[in-house]
């Protein structure tokens, strides 16, 4: 019970740190909230005390400490000239652009965007499924919203251009980096890097599009990790039914395709929304790079699908496939029919 109480305390500290960072009006309060979130997440990260988790936890702590130091240094530059930690007071400082580089670099390092993406696959490859889910969803919440605050306040062309270049390169890294990956965790890490490029680029148009994309990304990630967790239970219980494994594999491939943005799945709707909004800003080259990264990610996802069809459908009948219907069908319903419904709504709204 003592260990369980400490576990609840760490979860509470992680959630409280994120909420405190988002709701703060001072750079010092944002930094404190990010540090509280880090202190609460690290014990959850190394809860099973394995060698791989300890190595991933050490790498994550070092990178997050470097990101916090960049963030603190940029805010100290602002404080040395304005004598205030207020966010809005940075506009009165005519040399505030020199600190924007440090602030953006610290936040980009925390979410693992280009060119600070080097740590993300190695950290994620040694973590359990729950820690991976938290790393690609909840731990990115506060830095993304802080980046959105900076994008709303600062309306300078070269800052916008820098964000667009880093976002498009993140999409390319996420697409090309996952080609030679054989581990699912590393594949999901590069997929997260690519999706961060789409999320941050959507901020160039509006924060509303970013929230829609990020919400859909969280829903797809929850469905995907639910299937992965269920697959581990099946293997641990010794359920060697070929039909059950068939349905789990098919569910994983369909969720990967949804994460890659294959129409008419749910992930395609999020990318279509960003594509339409950014296309109105005449950012054609950046859109082209984002689409190229998505095509490369769909390349190895579709390769998995082709291998699945060749190896499986010669050994099983369609009658057995329909008998394998189970609880994972809810996950498929959310990603397939949810994408169709949102596509119909967007079509009727366009008309």
Q: Output the structural class.
A: mainly alpha
Fraction of helical residues: over 70%
Number of helix segments?
15
Mean pLDDT: 77
The total strand number stands at 0
**Main sheet: strands, sense, barrel:** none
| Percent of sequence in beta strands | under 5%
The assembly state of the depicted protein chains is single chain
Which parts are unreliable, with pLDDT below 50 for 5 consecutive residues or more? 233-243, 317-327, 347-351
Distance between the termini: 59 Å
Written as H for each helix and E for each strand, in order along the chain, the element string is: HHHHHHHHHHHHHHH
What value does the Rg take, in angstroms? 21 Å
What sort of overall outline do the alpha carbons produce when their principal axes are compared?
globular
EC number: 7.1.1.2
InterPro entries: Complex_I_Subunit_2, NADH_UbQ_OxRdtase_chain2, ND/Mrp_TM
Catalytic activity: a ubiquinone + NADH + 5 H(+)(in) = a ubiquinol + NAD(+) + 4 H(+)(out)
GO molecular function: NADH dehydrogenase (ubiquinone) activity
